[in-house]
Amino acid sequence: MDTIISKQTLFGHFSGQSTPIQQKAISDWLEHPESLELYFLWLEEWERLNPQFQADEREAFAQLWQQVQAFEEQQTTQVVDPPVIPLSSPVRSVRWTWLVAASVALALIGLTAYLNRSFILYRTIATQFGEVRTDTLPDGSVVTLNANSSLRYPRFGFGNRTREVFLTGEGAFSVQHTQSNQRFVVKTGKGFDVIVLGTEFTVFARQRGAKVVLNRGKVEIDYHRSGKSQQLTMQPGDVVALDKQGSIQKTYTKRPELQAAWQQHRYVFEETSLLEIATLLEENYGLNVTIRDEALANRTISGTYQATNADQLLETVTQLLEINYNRQNDTVLLFE
Questions:
Q1: 122-256 has which fold?
Q2: At 151, phi and psi to the nearest 5?
């Protein structure tokens, strides 16, 4: 018969109040892969109900792992000659060993589950170099990721308890408005968050900096300057850029939709330098681009061009500038 674990039993276990017998039952229950999602769903609920609990999980699991190793060493190095014990002891000894083994098994399962916790609690959408992908999130919002980008969002409760997503790279969003007016938040890891209700916008968050372009609706940028939280409200057409130093700049564009032309594999250049295009090739296609001299790197291109892969973009750029290129695998040299 399969083991059934209730929410109350796990809540007690999370509080450190489970008995060895309950730990054995939880250990058996966690052997079923489908139990892990429920385990972390209830763990997330328990943590919300117990916000005062601020455990250092890494330290706790480091100590737990040390205890597991100590137990294993004890089993392999114990004295061979058994002591003289009463006849009634073997049953008690076997039961005690069984309970200790169950505790160790639960600790090992817990450690494995902890290491995979992010995978269980979050879903991740990702694109490879040169790939563009569109997905619909559980709340009905639509996101299109540019090449070499990823989006992570909660597996449980998205659209009900939270609408926070974590973006690396570049993505275009069409956010679904909810009856409860719940905020949709894009976190970038670049020192700013994009907060919206229902709108269309593009977020760029890569190593060289970050940028938000608003197509329609209204969004709020939450960023930090000199250790203080700052807010900036954007209107359609606004472009907000954040450099590596944390300096923020707001400009305006009459055609914000062109900032997300990459969704149709189109590239829009407005006095764009060859150095910037080389960086784009590195970010979107994983190429290592070298420009032979500084004067060439500063030459610019304007216009809209179609390219579905790196070679097409290289051919277009080099023909426009009347220059040459040499590509060896992922290494590209641009020269006159």
A1: Jelly Rolls (2.60.120)
A2: -135, 130
Identical fold between 122-256 and 265-335: no
Question: Token pair of 173, please?
Answer: 């969003």
In this structure, which amino acid lies at residue 91?
V
Residue 85, pLDDT > 50, answer no
**How far is the first Cα of the chain from the last one, in angstroms, to the nearest whole number?**
75
For the chain, the structural domain boundaries read 7-75+88-115, 122-256, 265-335
Name, in order, each residue with C-beta under 8 angstroms of 266's C-beta and a sequence gap of 6 or more. Answer: 304, 305, 306, 307
User: Whose structure tokens read 């190095």?
Assistant: 77
Q: Which amino acid is at 231?
A: Q
pTM, rounded to two decimals: 0.65
Under CATH, which architecture does the 265-335 domain have?
A: 3-Layer(bab) Sandwich (3.55)
Separation CA 93–CA 104 (nearest Å) = 16
Strands 164-174 and 184-187: parallel
